[in-house]
Specification:
Two copies of one chain form a homodimer. Chain A contains 25 helices and 22 strands. Chain A starts with a helix and ends in a 6-residue tail after the last helix. In chain A, the strands form six sheets. Chain A has a six-stranded parallel beta sheet, sandwiched between helices. The first copy, chain A, has three domains: 3-357, 3-Layer(aba) Sandwich (Rossmann fold), CATH 3.40.50.970; 384-595, Thiamin diphosphate (ThDP)-binding fold, Pyr/PP domains (Rossmann fold, 3-Layer(aba) Sandwich); 612-793, Rossmann fold (3-Layer(aba) Sandwich). In chain A, α2 (57-74) crosses α10 (245-272) and α6 crosses α14 (470-482). The longest helix of chain A has 28 residues, at 3-30. The model of chain A has no long low-confidence stretch (mean pLDDT 96).
Amino acid sequence: MSADDELSRSLPAVDAWWRAANYLSVAQIYLMGDPLLRESLRPESIKPRLLGHWGTSPALSLVYAHLNRIIVEKGVPTVYVCGPGHGGPAMVANAWLDGTYSELFPEITPDEAGLRRLVRQFSFPGGIPSHAAPETPGSINEGGELGYSLMHAYGAALDNPGLVVACVIGDGEAETGPLATSWWGNAFLDPRTDGAVLPILNLNGYKIANPTILSRIPEEQLVEFFRGHGYEPILVSGGFDGDDPMLVHRSLAQALDDAYDRICRIWTSARDAETLADRTDERPPMIVLRTPKGWTGPAEVDGHAVAGTFHAHQVPLSGVRDNPEHLAQLEGWLRSYRPEDLFEADGSPAAILDPLRPVGGLRMSASPHTNGGTVEPLVLPDIAPHAVDVDPDGDGARTERAGATGVLGGWLRDVVVANPTTFRVFGPDEVASNRLQAVFEETDRAWQLPTVATDEHLATDGRVIEALSEHLMQGMLEGYLLTGRHGLITTYEAFVHIVDSMFNQHAKWLESAAHIPWRKPVPSLTYLLSSHVWRQDHNGFSHQDPGFLNVVVNKQADVVRVYLPTDANTLLVTMEHVFQTENRVNVVVAGKQEQPAWLSLDEARAHVDAGLGRWDWAGTEVDGEEPDVVLACAGDVPTLETVAAAQLLRQRVPDLRIRVVNVSDLMKLQDPEQHPHGLPDEDFDALFTRGKPVIFAFHGYPTLVHQLAYRRTNHGNIHVRGFVEKGTTTTPFDMVHLNDLDRYRLALDVLHRVPGLESKPGIRKLADEWHQVRTDARVYAYEHGEDPPWITDWRLER
Amino acid sequence: MSADDELSRSLPAVDAWWRAANYLSVAQIYLMGDPLLRESLRPESIKPRLLGHWGTSPALSLVYAHLNRIIVEKGVPTVYVCGPGHGGPAMVANAWLDGTYSELFPEITPDEAGLRRLVRQFSFPGGIPSHAAPETPGSINEGGELGYSLMHAYGAALDNPGLVVACVIGDGEAETGPLATSWWGNAFLDPRTDGAVLPILNLNGYKIANPTILSRIPEEQLVEFFRGHGYEPILVSGGFDGDDPMLVHRSLAQALDDAYDRICRIWTSARDAETLADRTDERPPMIVLRTPKGWTGPAEVDGHAVAGTFHAHQVPLSGVRDNPEHLAQLEGWLRSYRPEDLFEADGSPAAILDPLRPVGGLRMSASPHTNGGTVEPLVLPDIAPHAVDVDPDGDGARTERAGATGVLGGWLRDVVVANPTTFRVFGPDEVASNRLQAVFEETDRAWQLPTVATDEHLATDGRVIEALSEHLMQGMLEGYLLTGRHGLITTYEAFVHIVDSMFNQHAKWLESAAHIPWRKPVPSLTYLLSSHVWRQDHNGFSHQDPGFLNVVVNKQADVVRVYLPTDANTLLVTMEHVFQTENRVNVVVAGKQEQPAWLSLDEARAHVDAGLGRWDWAGTEVDGEEPDVVLACAGDVPTLETVAAAQLLRQRVPDLRIRVVNVSDLMKLQDPEQHPHGLPDEDFDALFTRGKPVIFAFHGYPTLVHQLAYRRTNHGNIHVRGFVEKGTTTTPFDMVHLNDLDRYRLALDVLHRVPGLESKPGIRKLADEWHQVRTDARVYAYEHGEDPPWITDWRLER
């Protein structure tokens, strides 16, 4: 039988599937009873609040039906990423037709009773959302915010060499910045070791109220656009002005056949090739599918055009309960899909759909890649060989120095080696800048474009991915994690704000997914933020912003963790921990510059395990006595200034009982009712006292400490120093000086705040002296261009 | 004289300018003495910390020199937007050669003494940053975060019909999402009424440590890429392998001639055309300039290739003070520009450069568009005709209802009409969705692409700009504001997080600019956030996030303002106010749904003026007596719930003295030491009492109130209800119920927290009753799909 004949035979079933999914999409938006239209539609069967969106659904189901045909025929595992917003009804409808929905939600049976629950729950109190959300089987992309579908798809395809990730992109979504740069995901996918992404751009012409740009440029320009991005576009168009849908079916089926064949040729060529030059230079395919918005919906409502216009975006027929004409039109619309041919008498999907239903995990709604079903355990090499040798048993001085992220880089290299196909490092051109370059001793950056002699560390199958887009890097990592693999993203602290909203959406995804029993836990999303606010010597004010932590702590406590490891060993221990967590977002802030290495590995383990603790070697505490003052600190630079301030005080005000407390797990500050890591009140009181002054040197904005600790007994005495939005291109010490976080300022704070201290003999003079040396440091820096030796040569003494 | 001859005559001067700028760029990075190399270079003339970046500078100066030639020849006013990061040295060098730098910074004289200060201040404590920052004359784009140059350029070109905005884009920057979608700015610029943007993509091949994508795709593909975006690319390439720079000069000069000629033809055609069809269909030009990274710098250092590789990104020669070989190499590099030909004996720029220096404001560094010099006053029509008629003098009931943003839309329409060339509305396809559609009664959306019959409100010269990119909309608005015009951006509250980082950068720009005397104030950036967290009936969890306020309050208090107008009239008054402000970021959060209109216009004026105040008509206060409890609220939905809770309490516990306080200016909560709007402590104490329970119903995350008010006397008694990250697609009342912000919960909070109240007769029973009716509301909603009538029909009674 010719390919053409085969198509002719299979397309009626594809059309039936499409009609069934469309029918169920409309039913979900409108109905709360009689889902199979056994009787004439009655007002009471209509939801009182019509909250769905219709416009995008028909094209989503069209692609779904056609992908089913391909999967059944070719047996190629395929993930469906649904980009457009409000695609929920279509994706749910298809998952129900697949049988997956009833398997995962046993109360939504594959019969009329199940259908009644299915249609009612959509956009209904206690029900399911309108997007392809965590609640949607087979989804790894919410579709709510728009813009992340294609990067999720590219992340999912990495290290899945047999997988096709079909990604339907809305033409509204395509206007977002993140999506616009995602087309370049093809520069990173190695056809030898990775799967393929098949972008399917649905040009339905309109967004909420505006036309879309890509739908209005001339077709010749559209082709140039995609060829310019390195794709071979395949154009499918139809459904306008009453086109026979069968023509579109045929054209789309051929396009998908072409695309899958092309993908297989590219795979085969890359896998058979001995050298890069032997690989085919065929471009990867993408499909442009131009169909009317809300296709198959009402052409006109109350005399106004709807299908094919932006009026089809939401609910085409409104006021249906009270408007008999609209009610009749809705009934006609629903019946136009001929439900009697699509469902058996008991309401189950008609037998004609059976040949289009792939088996088991080949159903896109049941793909094991999409619900955490394929999580590979991460092999974690020993951190001990990488630890900095800190010997606190000698004379008490701790004078070792190390760059924390540089040390971590050595271990990350081992992690990469130990997990050759399940761990990746992502960064916006900052992996080396953040001093993780040791990974390049064992791997390279993935790169499929031409190379030249002056390039370094590029290879088609490198385990590091870098493009200068925080969006693309985070999105690919999310796609990689949501399909069960492991990794981290490293970026400059200030610029992680670029992906604030992506963080929000991913945290919300995890918050929702945690309540869905069939979604297995996925590896956590871990940020390593370096090149932080305090060390922007090169970059200045635009690069100084520690406010990501403020964004993070707003999300549900079950999901978010914030770590401020203060030296190399605490960073190693922290990273070893966070890589073992699931369903969380871990934010780790660590410096890349050489800094004191305070803690031995054992000490670091105990400290990170506790999350915070006394550093008796830095203070002057007498066991069993309450200190006069607590110097608390979180973050590497504030810790250095705090330890130095304690030393100043120790040496000059030896009677003062100083407690130094370092916080490495920020959420310890919060009440245990508010966060699972929260320190119990009695422990907090024991550590921070119930009434002594606390000078808290904090990495970020000072009010964050107040926000977290406002319920604590001693909160009224906590005086926080942190970043107060002062800074520029200057020396490291001048930065802490500008923001009043320097050692002299902290020591002066102690003099001012410990009751009675200022009136003691010599203290006024000491304060003057510290003011002077602080000023001298600035004068020196502004004259010489670097910090004075009494700052740069400072070491902890005992 | 032929054009070719003319070029031959002018190019030596262009080359000299370029060499002078390069010389000064290198000098800024390295030198702190002897800027003209009067002697052999000595170690002490080298900065101790070498913090600059060289890689991008030569191409920036090349373009600058060539644009000077064009401006002098053609007299077309041109703004230079410098996209690449670390372009500061080049832009400063050119501004000094222009003469502008010495005019604006009188201590940086146009002579050797000035040069000494000029080179020393760069990336030096107390000096200037390495980016094209606010400190850089002629800059409207920081270049620090990367990605916003082209959108700033498009914003600057709007309504400046004679202006060319030349925008140099780095090939690293071009990988960011925001830049990737900015190419579509050409869909909005009307050649009849707007200026032109001339993008100049500099392909220098490398980012920090990676090659760039656009530099590695085949040239044919690159051409398709730009044609696909609707441009006519003009390719200029050279400088590799010792190419004669004069060849590049000739080629770039011709490219710029072509581009300007093309722009003028497009302008003329559009302005002469009677109909759209008469306009030329010539595409706007863009230039691809391929030059080596760090061109003219050291080809090799210590045997490793530098120029043309990513090793040229930062400081090509390190350790210069201590490494005599590097010192010698630096001297050779500097002398290679032949400074003796470029500076007069006194250190002023050589006469050969004079013909390339445009006069006055035609100098790009002195363009009046770029430093607030062209701010047009905004004409503000009367808000009174738009006010909702609220009559509080009747029986005391306030039962008017209105959608706040819908009412505002009517006034915005008048603002658009009153400011036909200086005010614009930007939105990511949400202007109508946020109910501002009244503006379309008088204007349209700007749109240069083909239209079809089903489009609505599109025109080439519309005053509203919409693309589905929060980035592009905010960036174009920033460009519009920074060049002295007015506008606002309206977006969904949750998705404003997409531009968190752009907000940060703009706020930092304003913070820095405020200290630069020659930068005139610019109109404020105003966000109207609607479709907020509490009314996501259609969209659910992914659209619920009020955390932008947390990001905003971290920035310097002089710059940020947050308003939560609670009804239509307070919104009108608030917007009238914010449009009159300068150098600020105003965040206004307002609902679009129908809500009670509580305040008459006069009341609203007084309330907004105060920023917060007692609503005696809602409480049960007796003048002169302290209330038993304060019910505070901020935001429209929390206010409704608070007023309803007060009514419950009024009717059922009539002896209770309740004070209702509404906060419309959030920063009133903060200490006046921390924010200029902060309420003095004595006033705060008078309003919130010094010891009574305060139940605060807040629009956003509850901890934000604690963060702002933690210093207040009565802070320990403030109990905040707000969004606690619970929500989904459900009814409006169920949303407040889910987050414990509903009227019953607030009333129950009062019962629990007013000392002794719970033990009074009947109170326990009342509490049970309220618990029950709260539960009943949910049961009703989950059964009927809508809120019960006792919620939807609720009205304030007295």
